[in-house]
Design a protein that fits this description.
two-stranded antiparallel sheet, alpha+beta, single chain
Length: 46
């Protein structure tokens, strides 16, 4: 099969899983270490 624009992933589901798994009590999101280089080195959002 051929993939285009991340169509191999159900992107909304992946994003929801990341947000639910890494959400802190204060509502901020701790980014997983493997994703940090792609997000400018951010460690957390919010």
């Amino acid at each position: 099969p051929h993939l285009l624009n991340a169509s191999g992933l159900a992107l909304p589901r992946v994003l929801a899983a990341l947000l639910e798994t890494h959400q802190n009590e204060d509502g901020s999101i701790t980014l997983p270490a493997p994703l940090r280089p792609y997000l400018g080195g951010l460690e957390a959002i919010g």
